[in-house]
Amino acid sequence: MSRLRFSIVNYNESMVKNRPKEMHLHDQSPPKIVWDDGAILVYSAFDLRMACPCAACRDEMTGVKTLREQDVARDIKIVESRPVGRYGQNLVFSDGHASGIYVNDLLRGLGK
Ligand SMILES: [Zn+2]
């Protein structure tokens, strides 16, 4: 079983195309990520919080978002980002929410 889990993680990592070079979600305003292909994308902490993929913010079975916009402060901030393997980032928000792991390809798609 543990071997199976391990291979799934490797599979996921190999499928993720985008890699951040510099994470500035918590120390710049507006929040930014510099990607390894040179793209610099700007982020909204509110939009990132709304897109949280964790089980508390989405129905685990259907994937439908259960988090409501009125539940999130408009001036929410990102206080920390931590790499998860080579495939994603764990974002810590100023409301204390820290259970979302954002796959790098998802993060890339959320930037402007
Ligand atoms: Zn969440």
Kindly state the percentage of residues in helix: 10-25%
Order of helices and strands: HEEEHEEEH
Which ligands accompany this protein?
Answer: zinc ion
Return the average pLDDT rounded to an integer.
89
Task: State which percent range the strand residues make up.
Answer: 25-35%
CATH topology, which one?
NE0471 N-terminal domain-like
How many structural domains can be distinguished in the coordinates? 1
Q: Strands of the biggest beta sheet: in what spatial order?
A: 1-2-3
Structural Rg? 14 Å
Q: Shape, please?
A: globular
Number of strands: 6
> What is the CATH C level class, in words?
Alpha Beta
Please give the count of helices: 3
What's the assembly state of these chains? Answer: single chain
Low-confidence stretches: 1-8
CATH level-two architecture: 2-Layer Sandwich
**Helix-and-strand structural type:** alpha+beta
- Largest sheet, strands/sense/barrel: 3 strands, antiparallel
Report the end-to-end length measured between terminal Cα atoms: 40 Å
List keywords for this structure.
single chain; 112 residues; alpha+beta; NE0471 N-terminal domain-like; 3-stranded antiparallel sheet; 3 helices; globular; disordered N terminus; binds zinc ion
Task: Briefly summarize what is shown.
With 112 residues, the chain is of the alpha+beta class.
Description:
There is one protein chain. With 112 residues, the protein is of the alpha+beta class. It has a single domain (2-110), classed as NE0471 N-terminal domain-like (2-Layer Sandwich). It has 3 helices and 6 strands. The chain has helices spanning 2-15, 45-50, 104-110, and strands spanning 20-24, 32-35, 40-42, 78-84, 88-93, 101-103. The chain has a 3-stranded antiparallel β-sheet, with no helix packed on it. It has a 3-stranded antiparallel β-sheet with strand order 4-5-6. The radius of gyration is 14 Å and the shape is globular. Residues 1-8 have low confidence and may be disordered. The structure holds zinc ion (ZN). Zinc ion is lined by residues 52, 54, 56-57, 97, 99-100.
